């Protein structure tokens, strides 16, 4: 997977367990927006600082 962390303006390769651990360790006052892509960039899952989850499949 590829993860884009908007707050740090950085894109990294990440495992599912890394992303789950990162989100679990986040404090309530920390505003993080994360976009997660598959390696083929056919979809994107986003988690916003408002605790909203969005999913987009690209054509």
What features would you highlight for this structure?
1 helix, 5 strands, 5-stranded antiparallel sheet, alpha+beta, globular, single chain, 59 residues
Our Rg estimate from Cα atoms comes to: 11 Å
Q: Segments where pLDDT lies below 50 for 5+ residues? A: none
Residues in helix, %: 10-25%
Distance between the termini: 19 Å
Structural class: alpha+beta
What does the overall shape look like? globular
Tell how many strands the DSSP assignment holds: 5
**Proportion of residues in β-strands:** 35-45%
What string gives the helices and strands in order?
EEHEEE
Note the total helix count: 1
Give the strand line-up of the largest sheet: 2-1-3-4-5
For the largest beta-sheet, the strand count, sense and barrel status come to: 5 strands, antiparallel
Mean pLDDT reading: 92
Q: What is the subunit arrangement here?
A: single chain
Number of domains: 1
Give a written overview of the molecule.
With 59 residues, this protein is α+β, with helices and mostly antiparallel strands. It has one domain (2-23, 30-57). The chain is 17% helix and 37% strand. It contains 1 helix and 5 strands; from the N terminus they run E-E-H-E-E-E. The chain has a 5-stranded antiparallel β-sheet with strand order 2-1-3-4-5, with no helix packed on it. A hairpin with a 5-residue loop joins strand 4 (43-47) and strand 5. The protein is globular.
């Amino acid at each position: 997977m590829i993860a884009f962390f908007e707050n740090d303006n950085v894109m990294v390769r990440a495992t599912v367990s890394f992303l789950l651990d990162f989100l679990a360790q986040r404090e309530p006052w920390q505003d993080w927006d994360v976009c997660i892509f598959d390696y083929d960039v056919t979809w994107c899952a986003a988690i916003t600082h408002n605790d909203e989850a969005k999913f987009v499949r690209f054509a």
